[in-house]
Amino acid sequence: GIQVEQSPPDLILQEGANSTLRCNFSDSVNNLQWFHQNPWGQLINLFYIPSGTKQNGRLSATTVATERYSLLYISSSQTTDSGVYFCAVGRLLRDDMRFGAGTRLTVKP
Amino acid sequence: DGGITQSPKYLFRKEGQNVTLSCEQNLNHDAMYWYRQDPGQGLRLIYYSQIVNDFQKGDIAEGYSVSREKKESFPLTVTSAQKNPTAFYLCATRSETTGHYGYTFGSGTRLTVV
Questions:
Q1: Nearest to B60 by CA among A35, A99, A24
Q2: What is residue A65's three-state secondary structure?
Q3: pLDDT over 70 (residue B1)
Q4: How many of the other CB atoms lie within 10 Å of CB of B105?
Q5: A residues 41-60 closer than 8 Å to B (CB)
Q6: Is A100 an 8 Å CB contact of chain B?
Q7: Nearest Cα to B46, choosing from B19, B82, B16, B71?
Q8: How far apart are the C-alpha atoms of B74 and B35, rounded to whole Å?
Q9: CB-CB under 8 Å, B105 with A42
Q10: A77 CB near a chain B CB, below 8 Å?
Protein backbone atom coordinates (compact mmCIF):
# COMPACT_ATOMS: atom_id res chain seq x y z
CA GLY A 1 0.00 0.00 0.00
CA ILE A 2 0.87 3.65 -0.20
CA GLN A 3 3.45 4.88 2.33
CA VAL A 4 3.19 8.27 4.01
CA GLU A 5 6.13 9.92 5.75
CA GLN A 6 5.88 13.11 7.76
CA SER A 7 8.74 15.29 8.91
CA PRO A 8 9.91 16.42 11.31
CA PRO A 9 8.42 14.06 13.92
CA ASP A 10 8.70 16.73 16.61
CA LEU A 11 8.96 20.49 16.43
CA ILE A 12 9.30 23.03 19.23
CA LEU A 13 8.79 26.72 18.48
CA GLN A 14 8.59 30.00 20.30
CA GLU A 15 5.33 31.84 19.89
CA GLY A 16 5.45 34.02 16.78
CA ALA A 17 7.80 31.77 14.81
CA ASN A 18 7.00 30.25 11.42
CA SER A 19 7.22 26.56 10.53
CA THR A 20 6.94 24.16 7.61
CA LEU A 21 5.70 20.59 7.96
CA ARG A 22 6.28 18.08 5.19
CA CYS A 23 4.37 15.04 3.95
CA ASN A 24 5.94 12.67 1.40
CA PHE A 25 3.97 9.84 -0.19
CA SER A 26 5.07 6.86 -2.23
CA ASP A 27 2.48 6.80 -5.02
CA SER A 28 0.27 9.13 -6.99
CA VAL A 29 -2.76 10.34 -5.01
CA ASN A 30 -6.12 11.89 -5.75
CA ASN A 31 -6.97 12.66 -2.14
CA LEU A 32 -4.85 14.50 0.40
CA GLN A 33 -5.94 16.08 3.63
CA TRP A 34 -4.18 17.83 6.53
CA PHE A 35 -5.56 17.52 10.06
CA HIS A 36 -4.76 19.03 13.45
CA GLN A 37 -5.33 16.78 16.45
CA ASN A 38 -5.99 18.88 19.52
CA PRO A 39 -5.08 17.86 23.11
CA TRP A 40 -8.53 16.24 23.53
CA GLY A 41 -7.94 13.99 20.54
CA GLN A 42 -10.33 15.68 18.12
CA LEU A 43 -9.12 15.64 14.51
CA ILE A 44 -9.86 18.97 12.86
CA ASN A 45 -9.76 19.26 9.10
CA LEU A 46 -7.32 21.97 8.01
CA PHE A 47 -7.12 21.51 4.26
CA TYR A 48 -8.40 19.16 1.60
CA ILE A 49 -5.65 19.66 -0.97
CA PRO A 50 -4.88 16.91 -3.50
CA SER A 51 -3.08 19.53 -5.61
CA GLY A 52 -2.31 23.23 -5.68
CA THR A 53 -2.15 25.81 -2.92
CA LYS A 54 -4.69 26.96 -0.35
CA GLN A 55 -4.59 29.48 2.46
CA ASN A 56 -6.70 29.92 5.56
CA GLY A 57 -5.56 32.72 7.83
CA ARG A 58 -2.11 31.95 9.23
CA LEU A 59 -2.10 28.49 7.68
CA SER A 60 -1.42 27.56 4.10
CA ALA A 61 -0.72 24.32 2.26
CA THR A 62 0.81 23.31 -1.03
CA THR A 63 0.66 19.91 -2.71
CA VAL A 64 2.94 19.06 -5.63
CA ALA A 65 1.31 15.84 -6.73
CA THR A 66 3.78 15.11 -9.51
CA GLU A 67 6.64 15.15 -7.00
CA ARG A 68 4.64 13.33 -4.30
CA TYR A 69 4.81 15.78 -1.43
CA SER A 70 2.74 18.32 0.43
CA LEU A 71 3.78 21.15 2.74
CA LEU A 72 1.85 22.79 5.56
CA TYR A 73 2.97 26.29 6.54
CA ILE A 74 2.16 27.84 9.89
CA SER A 75 3.00 31.50 10.28
CA SER A 76 3.15 33.57 13.47
CA SER A 77 2.53 30.45 15.56
CA GLN A 78 0.39 30.61 18.69
CA THR A 79 0.24 28.32 21.70
CA THR A 80 -3.15 27.09 20.49
CA ASP A 81 -1.41 25.67 17.39
CA SER A 82 0.18 23.00 19.60
CA GLY A 83 -0.86 19.43 18.92
CA VAL A 84 -0.23 16.78 16.32
CA TYR A 85 -0.54 17.46 12.60
CA PHE A 86 -1.46 14.55 10.36
CA CYS A 87 -1.32 14.14 6.61
CA ALA A 88 -3.67 11.57 5.05
CA VAL A 89 -3.67 10.40 1.44
CA GLY A 90 -5.72 8.19 -0.87
CA ARG A 91 -4.84 6.92 -4.33
CA LEU A 92 -8.36 7.06 -5.71
CA LEU A 93 -11.14 9.50 -4.87
CA ARG A 94 -13.19 6.94 -2.95
CA ASP A 95 -10.30 5.02 -1.40
CA ASP A 96 -9.78 4.87 2.32
CA MET A 97 -7.07 7.29 3.43
CA ARG A 98 -3.65 6.34 4.78
CA PHE A 99 -2.18 8.42 7.58
CA GLY A 100 1.36 9.45 8.33
CA ALA A 101 2.75 9.16 11.85
CA GLY A 102 2.24 12.88 12.42
CA THR A 103 4.32 15.90 13.46
CA ARG A 104 4.01 16.89 17.10
CA LEU A 105 4.19 20.68 17.38
CA THR A 106 4.78 22.46 20.67
CA VAL A 107 4.53 26.25 20.70
CA LYS A 108 6.00 27.85 23.80
CA PRO A 109 4.86 31.26 25.09
CA ASP B 1 -25.96 20.83 13.56
CA GLY B 2 -24.51 18.34 11.10
CA GLY B 3 -21.86 16.09 12.47
CA ILE B 4 -20.68 12.78 13.84
CA THR B 5 -21.45 11.62 17.36
CA GLN B 6 -19.35 8.96 19.00
CA SER B 7 -20.32 7.46 22.32
CA PRO B 8 -19.30 6.86 24.95
CA LYS B 9 -16.28 9.16 25.26
CA TYR B 10 -14.64 6.78 27.76
CA LEU B 11 -15.19 3.05 28.05
CA PHE B 12 -13.70 0.49 30.39
CA ARG B 13 -13.71 -3.17 29.48
CA LYS B 14 -12.93 -6.18 31.57
CA GLU B 15 -10.91 -9.03 30.14
CA GLY B 16 -13.09 -11.35 28.05
CA GLN B 17 -15.90 -8.85 27.48
CA ASN B 18 -17.28 -7.62 24.19
CA VAL B 19 -18.03 -3.91 23.99
CA THR B 20 -19.73 -1.83 21.31
CA LEU B 21 -18.73 1.68 20.30
CA SER B 22 -21.37 3.86 18.72
CA CYS B 23 -20.94 6.14 15.70
CA GLU B 24 -23.92 8.15 14.41
CA GLN B 25 -23.85 10.76 11.63
CA ASN B 26 -26.36 13.21 10.19
CA LEU B 27 -24.17 14.39 7.31
CA ASN B 28 -25.93 12.08 4.84
CA HIS B 29 -22.58 10.59 3.83
CA ASP B 30 -22.53 7.09 2.40
CA ALA B 31 -19.00 6.09 3.39
CA MET B 32 -18.01 5.54 7.03
CA TYR B 33 -14.73 4.40 8.60
CA TRP B 34 -13.31 3.17 11.90
CA TYR B 35 -9.71 3.94 12.81
CA ARG B 36 -7.62 2.99 15.80
CA GLN B 37 -4.94 5.25 17.29
CA ASP B 38 -2.36 4.06 19.78
CA PRO B 39 -0.40 6.58 21.90
CA GLY B 40 2.07 8.56 19.83
CA GLN B 41 1.03 6.80 16.64
CA GLY B 42 -0.90 7.55 13.48
CA LEU B 43 -4.30 6.14 12.59
CA ARG B 44 -4.84 2.59 11.35
CA LEU B 45 -7.94 1.44 9.48
CA ILE B 46 -10.10 -1.21 11.15
CA TYR B 47 -13.23 -1.42 8.95
CA TYR B 48 -15.03 0.71 6.42
CA SER B 49 -18.39 0.79 4.72
CA GLN B 50 -19.09 2.44 1.37
CA ILE B 51 -22.85 1.85 1.53
CA VAL B 52 -25.59 0.41 3.72
CA ASN B 53 -25.43 -3.37 4.24
CA ASP B 54 -21.87 -3.56 2.95
CA PHE B 55 -18.54 -3.27 4.76
CA GLN B 56 -14.92 -4.23 4.21
CA LYS B 57 -11.99 -5.15 6.44
CA GLY B 58 -9.18 -2.70 6.85
CA ASP B 59 -5.60 -3.37 7.88
CA ILE B 60 -6.28 -4.44 11.48
CA ALA B 61 -9.77 -6.03 11.45
CA GLU B 62 -8.94 -9.08 13.58
CA GLY B 63 -10.83 -9.02 16.87
CA TYR B 64 -13.36 -6.43 15.66
CA SER B 65 -16.77 -6.59 14.01
CA VAL B 66 -19.12 -4.01 12.49
CA SER B 67 -22.60 -3.68 11.03
CA ARG B 68 -24.17 -1.13 8.69
CA GLU B 69 -27.93 -1.57 8.86
CA LYS B 70 -28.68 2.14 8.56
CA LYS B 71 -26.96 4.93 6.65
CA GLU B 72 -26.62 6.97 9.81
CA SER B 73 -25.04 4.32 12.02
CA PHE B 74 -21.83 2.27 11.94
CA PRO B 75 -21.23 0.59 15.32
CA LEU B 76 -17.94 -1.14 16.11
CA THR B 77 -17.77 -4.15 18.42
CA VAL B 78 -14.47 -4.92 20.11
CA THR B 79 -14.58 -8.63 20.84
CA SER B 80 -12.70 -10.68 23.41
CA ALA B 81 -10.53 -11.93 20.53
CA GLN B 82 -8.87 -8.50 20.33
CA LYS B 83 -5.85 -9.06 22.57
CA ASN B 84 -4.79 -5.46 23.01
CA PRO B 85 -7.88 -3.27 22.71
CA THR B 86 -6.74 -0.32 24.81
CA ALA B 87 -6.63 2.56 22.32
CA PHE B 88 -8.39 5.66 21.00
CA TYR B 89 -11.07 4.83 18.42
CA LEU B 90 -12.12 7.34 15.79
CA CYS B 91 -15.06 7.20 13.41
CA ALA B 92 -15.09 9.17 10.17
CA THR B 93 -17.34 9.82 7.22
CA ARG B 94 -16.29 10.82 3.72
CA SER B 95 -17.79 13.62 1.72
CA GLU B 96 -19.07 12.99 -1.79
CA THR B 97 -19.26 16.63 -2.78
CA THR B 98 -17.71 17.18 -6.18
CA GLY B 99 -14.19 18.40 -5.65
CA HIS B 100 -14.12 17.41 -2.00
CA TYR B 101 -13.81 13.79 -0.95
CA GLY B 102 -12.24 14.41 2.44
CA TYR B 103 -12.97 13.00 5.87
CA THR B 104 -14.87 14.38 8.84
CA PHE B 105 -14.11 12.80 12.21
CA GLY B 106 -16.07 12.26 15.38
CA SER B 107 -14.56 13.16 18.75
CA GLY B 108 -13.49 9.58 19.52
CA THR B 109 -13.89 6.92 22.21
CA ARG B 110 -11.07 6.02 24.60
CA LEU B 111 -11.24 2.33 25.46
CA THR B 112 -9.29 0.94 28.40
CA VAL B 113 -9.03 -2.68 29.50
CA VAL B 114 -9.13 -3.06 33.27
A1: A99
A2: helix
A3: no
A4: 22
A5: 41-43, 45, 48
A6: yes
A7: B82
A8: 12
A9: yes
A10: no
- B33-72 confidence digits (pLDDT tens): 999 999 888 999 999 999 999 999 999 999 999 999 999 9
Residue type, A74: I
Q: Which uninterrupted H or E stretch holds B21?
A: strand B19-25
Using a CB-CB cut-off of 8 Å, the residues of chain B touching A40 are 107
Dihedral, CA of residue A5, residue A6, residue A10 and residue A14, to nearest 10: 170
pLDDT at A94: 76
Q: Which of B37, B90, B101 sits opposite A31 (nearest CB)?
A: B101
Q: Which residues of B37-48 are buried (b: 16+ CB within 10 A; e: fewer)?
A: beeeebbbbbbb
In chain B, the residue whose alpha carbon lies closest to the alpha carbon of A36 is B105
